[in-house]
Amino acid sequence: MTRPTRLVAIHTVTRQIMTKQIVAWLVVASLWAGACGTEDDGTNVDNTKVVNINNADSLNSTSSPQPTTGNNSSNNSPNSDNPNNNYPNANSSASTNTQNNNPATHEPDLPTQNPSEAPTSNTTENEPLTLTPVISLPDPIVLIPRPGTGNQRGDLYVGTRAGRVWVLSADEDESPEMVLDISDLTETGCENGLLGMAFDPDGHSLYIHYTDLQQDSQIVAFPMIGHRVLKSQGRTVLSVSQPHCNHNGGSMAFGPDGYLWLSMGDGGGSNDQFGHGQNLNSLLGAILRIDPKTSTSTGTNTYAIPADNPFAGTFDPDNPDSGNPDSETRALAEIWAYGARNPWRFSFDRTTGDLWIADVGQNKWEEIHVLWAADNWSSGANLGWPLYEGNERFSGTVMPEDLVFPIHVYDHDQGCSITGGYVYRGSSIAWLTGTYIFGDFCEGRLWGLKVDPADNNLANNDQHFELGVTVPQATLVSFGEDAAGELYVLSFDDTIYRLEPAT
Ligand SMILES: [Ca+2]
Questions:
Q1: Ligand 1 centroid to 290 CA: how many Å?
Q2: What is the pLDDT of residues 46-58, one digit of tens each?
Q3: Percentage of the chain surpassing pLDDT 90?
Q4: Which of 63, 70, 332, 408 has an alpha carbon within 20 to 30 A of 354's alpha carbon?
Q5: What's the chain's average pLDDT?
Q6: Which pLDDT does position 302 carry in this prediction?
Q7: How far is ligand 1, taken at its centre, from the CA of residue 222, in Å?
Q8: Which residues of 132-166 are buried (b: 16+ CB within 10 A; e: fewer)?
Q9: What distance in Å separates the CA atoms of residue 350 and residue 232, rounded to the nearest whole number?
């Protein structure tokens, strides 16, 4: 399951012009996931939650942060992730950076001086693309098609961060219809809110991954009634306590194996201060795989553990006598992979089944892992955090045998918070087929990674290329894929776009 270290040649680009206004945008951007004002503090968890609720007040509406306001600097932490930490390899430049905000899911290392040039290389020679606005909704955060809905595109369901789910009309010329409202169950401060959704493969239930009013993670299955969602019949599948308001993960999808996969961040704060990344006895900092349609009926669980999970049968938290008291075998059976920091978005390649995980970095490196289906998704993989940030040693000295390094990284000269997307399998942009589409929340630029199907590796020297389309800075929060494989961009400029040929 171990793959060799990939010595990634990091594409060097010159920094973009970083005007004061853009810095201000990033300050506001940090509030989507809410700068968590005490990001680095971490010494008082309970107080942190209170403080962050206060910090998040300005976001407790369904409208998106407006990039022109930029007056929320008081919400930013005097940053934390860097100074005085115990990690010798943390980004040294960050120690002088007092504007380290936390857009979306990370702590960007903002340039301290204005770069003077925009990137000039890494552009594609392929046909130009465009982003076509499809619909406007406040803070759209997840878009999925409902299986079995007939039309080629599939009925598209959009979840907004505030906790509302909308279905788009088939021809997109009518207003979307709201089919579920759980805005009373969640709030949108810090990195909270409705974070992820997945339909079960038969389209009969909608699973929602959100943070509740205590800022803990909840995965709830709602039955569908016609095209609407029956809120009163919601069944809690999994609850996970959160020690801090950020790094909640949130991605969720049924894999080609029929099981539900979901991502959990390391719990929050900075430097994995709660020690979850390498802790197999915690569901945090991990990619989980469960069977939510079969309940083991023990304790609070309403799911079953797939028999071939890497740590299945070792320890059941509802049965303290299970497993072996040895710490190694206390690994929780829900875990498929661990060592994640904040795997905000992952997706399965619908053709190959490969699992693409975009893990948001701390001060320096954004990273992409691929768990190849042909390698049984690297069962039990250790994604490295906080031993490694990207390919760079971050803490400790141990080198676990199960370590899987990223297939691609980029540094904070190019962005500050990765937003994972999908491998393109649509039909409208032939040259993009097989390309992993992703981007950076802060920069708003979309990128592609070409995969060589012959060896399941990157085909373009480990470098991403520009798709030539962008959304405003600090808005690129998510991607969606419809039933036909066409891709959508969800932006906190309150717009859902479809990626199309520029013609
Ligand atoms: Ca958290």
A1: 20
A2: 222 222 222 222 2
A3: 63
A4: 332
A5: 77
A6: 87
A7: 24
A8: eebbebebbbbbbbbeebeeebbbbbbbbbbbbbb
A9: 32
Q: What is the 3-state secondary structure (H, E, C) of 428-494?
A: CCHHHCCEEEEEECCCCEEEEEEEECCCCEECCCCCCEEEEEECCCCCEEEEEECCCCCEEEEECCC
Distance 156 CA to ligand 1 centre (A): 29
The neighbouring-strand residues paired with 158 are 143, 166
Contact between residue 445 and residue 366 where contact means Cβ atoms under 8 Å apart: no
44 CA distance to ligand 1 middle (Å)? 14
Which tens digits make up the pLDDT trace of 351-404? 999 999 999 999 999 999 999 999 999 999 999 999 999 999 999 999 999 999
Cα(284) to centroid(ligand 1), Å: 9
Task: Indicate whether 163 pLDDT > 70.
Answer: yes
Q: 13: CA distance to ligand 1 center in Å? A: 33
216 Cα to the center of ligand 1, angstroms: 7
pLDDT band at 328 (very low <50, low <70, confident <90, very high): low
Distance, CA 134 to ligand 1 centroid (Å)? 32
Kindly list the distances between the CA atom of residue 6 and the CA atoms of 142, 366, 392, 406, 416, in Å, as whole numbers in the listed order: 31, 15, 11, 7, 21
The rounded distance, in Å, linking the Cα atoms of 389 and 342 is 11
Which ranges of 141-283 would DSSP assign to H, the alpha helix?
none
Q: Look up the CATH number of domain 129-501.
A: 2.120.10.30
- Full-prediction pTM beyond 0.90? no
Tell how far the Cα of 186 is from the centroid of ligand 1, in angstroms.
14
Specify the DSSP class assigned to residue 21. H
CA-to-CA dists, residue 121 to 42, 53, 110, 156, 465, angstroms:
40, 42, 22, 36, 8
d(C-alpha 339, C-alpha 355), whole Å: 16
The burial class, CB within 10 Å (0-12 / 13-18 / 19+), for 289 is buried
Are 332 and 303 a contacting pair, CB within 8 Å? Answer: no
Q: Does the bond joining 386 to the residue before it have cis omega, within 30 degrees of 0?
A: yes
- Distance from the CA of 434 to the center of ligand 1, in angstroms? 33
User: What distance in angstroms lies between residue 306's CA and the mean position of ligand 1's atoms?
Assistant: 26
